[in-house]
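Quick start: what a row looks like.
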Amino acid sequence: MVKVLLGCLVSKVPNDVLTCYKALLDFIYLAQYPSHDDDTLEYMEAALTLFHKHKEVFISLGIQDHFNMLKFHSLLHYIECIKQYSTTDNYNMEAFEHLHIDLVKEDWCVSNTRNLIPQMTRWLDRQDQIAMFQQYIDHPLEENLFSWAMRIVLAKHPTIHAQLIWMIEELHSVPHFSKDLKHFLNSLLPPGQAITCAATACLNILDIWHSYKLQMDKLGNDVDVQEGMETIKAKPGEGSRFDTVMVAHSTAAESTGLQVIFKLPTKISLSDAPCTWPKEELAYVEWYKISQMPGEYHGMYFISKPYSEPTRGVVLLRTIHQACQLCNSYSHQKGSLVHCMDINECVGQL
């Protein structure tokens, strides 16, 4: 709920209320970091200071009589406790309760309740060996389980195999897809070279996916890589859905509209495709225009489509870092969309 509430409050409440909510939201997410340095602790202190600076608005509006509550007082000690006792995930008793189930209750149940300690320790040792062997079977060649290969989950077979490019342009409403694809392929060649006309003529079919799943980076989620999966779609036709995504194709991230998910063929007219062509999945996106500065009180950026011909391009699918929800902005220019750049605070809907 907190992810969407900030966008819902824009232009609906006084600016001081919006500032307080944003400050608390920033503090909550910063407090969940699995590691901290002096900079992140300063961000936490600045967010808390900002909240206390504007909190009197709740009293003046009659919403709250005072803030003499333990939960608000405890916020003052977070930074000091992190410095002394490490990050806040060490304070959560859920981890110890869960370990008590795994390391005590389950192995007690499989014992004969006599001479417990040797039986329980041996059972735990065998469980660790089984888990390690299962991990080796599942990921024999992967050194890092949190690599980009693990982040993208794509169906083994495409939604539509060998779809004609002209049909892609019509169904996905992307009339310049073939031209932009050719421009992308030319950019992979050395300067002065261009894709041949024969290769362009033969490149008339592509495998198309209508969706895929993306593993989200969750704060403190360093155990179960299956958590936090979200589905991203570029589906035409009945029940069409084209998601907005964040693409990090350069030093800066940009907000785009996902149009097509596809993969280049490995062979063209019985010949191997050029070695410069990517072997991985690609995405065709429409670039949005983003404001230079975020909103003064809510800290979100304003997104709008260009008034001229839309700018589109081809990017590697793995450069898409997340889906991003947008919400209508009635306090800015007409037709623009409010957008939050923070991973955990993307708000609203199209």
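That is the whole record. Residues 116-138 form the longest helix (23 residues). The mean pLDDT is 80.
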